[in-house]
Amino acid sequence: MTTRYGMTVPLGSAPLHAQRRQIEELVDLGYTDVWSAEADGVDGFTPLALASVWAPSLRLGTAIIPAFTRGPATLAQSVAGLSQAAPGRFVLGLGTSSNVIVEGWNGIAFEEPYKRMRDTLRFLRAALAGEKVTEVYDTFSVRGFRLRSLPEGEVPILVAALREGMLNLAGREADGAIVNWLSADDVARVAPIVRAHGADKEIVARIFVAPSEDTDAVRGAARFAIAAYVNVPVYKAFHQWLGRGDRLGACWAAWEAGDREAALAAIPDSVVDELVVHGSPEACRAHIQRYVDNGVTTPALAVLPLAADIDLGRAVADLAPR
Predict the structure, then answer these.
(1) Residue 16 domain-assigned?
(2) What are the CA-CA distances from residue 247 to residues 179, 185, 195, 207, 268 (Å)?
(3) Which of 6, 134, 138, 289 has the most C-beta neighbours closer than 10 Å?
(4) Cα distance between residue 66 and residue 63, in whole Å
(5) Is residue 284 within 8 Å of residue 278, measured between CB atoms?
(6) Are 1 and 289 spatial neighbours (Cβ–Cβ below 8 Å)?
(7) Residue 194 to residue 199: CA distance in whole angstroms
(8) HSE on the CB side for 202, CA within 13 Å?
(9) Counting Cβ atoms within 10 Å, is residue 146 exposed (0-12), middle (13-18) or buried (19+)?
C-alpha cells in the first residue's frame, strides 16, 4: 500500500506494561510505525519510549504533542530524550491542539495558535541543533537556553494542519503535515497545499477505523466521536472550509442550543461514512488505500471499538498491510 503503515498506541485500555506482546506483534504483521496521541489518556512520549525497546525496528511518531502545554525548553528536552532512545526513528508531530485541551483542561490561554505553532517550530529547530537560544518570539520568549544533550541526527518535525495557513506552514518550515478527521477525498485538496513547498513532504493521516459490518451500530457510535470534534471551533471551521457546512449545519445549530441528542441525530450517514472507515477488513483496507492514492504517505490507523463484534487484536491483524 505504501512504504509506511502505522498503528496508534497505546493499543486499547490495558495498562502500558501489559502491551509489550501486542507491540512486538505489530512488526510481524507488517506495520512500520507506531503513533501516539496526547489528549486525556497517557502522555504522548511514554508509549513510544516503551515501543522503542520492545520493537526496535518501528518508527515512532507523536500525532500529536500540543505546542501549548509544555514550556519550550521542556519540550526540547523531551524530544531529545526520545530521539536518543531511538536514534533515527523518532518523528515529532506537533500541533496547536484545541481550546478544549489547552484552556479547558490545562488552564493555558489558547491565543494566536498559528503564531504559537510557528514560534515553537522555529525554537525547536534552533534548540535541537545545539544553538544557544535567546529570542523574543511573538508568543513566548526564551533567554539563554542551550540543550546540552542533543539528538543523534536531525529529528523530523511534522505540523498538525487543518486549513491553508497551517498547511502552508507545514510545507514551508516543517518536514510535512499530520492530518486528522478528514475524508479520503479531502486529502486530494489538502495534500497539494503542503507539497507545493516540496514534493518530498510527508503527510501522515490519522485514520479512524471500525472493521465491522454492523453498519447501524458503527454509525450510531461514531456520531458521538464525530460530534465531539466537529463542534470544537477549529474543527468546525475546518469542515466549513472543506464544504460540509450544509450537511453539518443542523448539528452545529442543535449543539449550540444545548440539544446534544438532536446534534448527534443531525449528523448524516454520508458524513459518518466519509470520516470513519468501516465495513469488512477488505473494504476497510480498500478505503485506506484511497487515502494513500490521494496523497497520504503514512496511514496511522486508530481502531475504534464502535460495535460489539470489534476485537482489537483481531482488528489490528485484519487491517495489517497485505
Answers:
(1) yes
(2) 21, 16, 29, 21, 7
(3) 6
(4) 9
(5) yes
(6) yes
(7) 9
(8) 21
(9) middle
Is residue 83 within 8 Å of residue 76, measured between CB atoms?
A: no
- For residue 286, the enclosing domain spans 6-212+277-318
Q: How many domains does the chain have?
A: 1
pLDDT in tens, 159-179: 999 999 999 999 999 999 999
In a domain? residue 297? yes
Q: Which residues of 110-140 are buried (b: 16+ CB within 10 A; e: fewer)?
A: beebeebbbbbbebbebbbeeeebeeebebb
Residue whose grid cell is 472493521: 211
* Grid cell for residue 145: 537556553
Instruction: Decide if 45 is inside a domain.
Output: yes
Global pTM value? 0.97
CATH code where residue 104 lies: 3.20.20.30
The 10s digit of each residue's pLDDT in 173-207 is 999 999 999 999 999 999 999 999 999 999 999 99
Per-residue cell: 80: 531529545
Task: With respect to residue 217, please indicate whether it lies within any of the assigned structural domains.
Answer: no
Helix residue spans in the chain (DSSP H): 20-29, 46-54, 72-85, 99, 113-128, 164-173, 184-195, 215-230, 233-241, 245-256, 260-265, 269-275, 281-293, 312-318
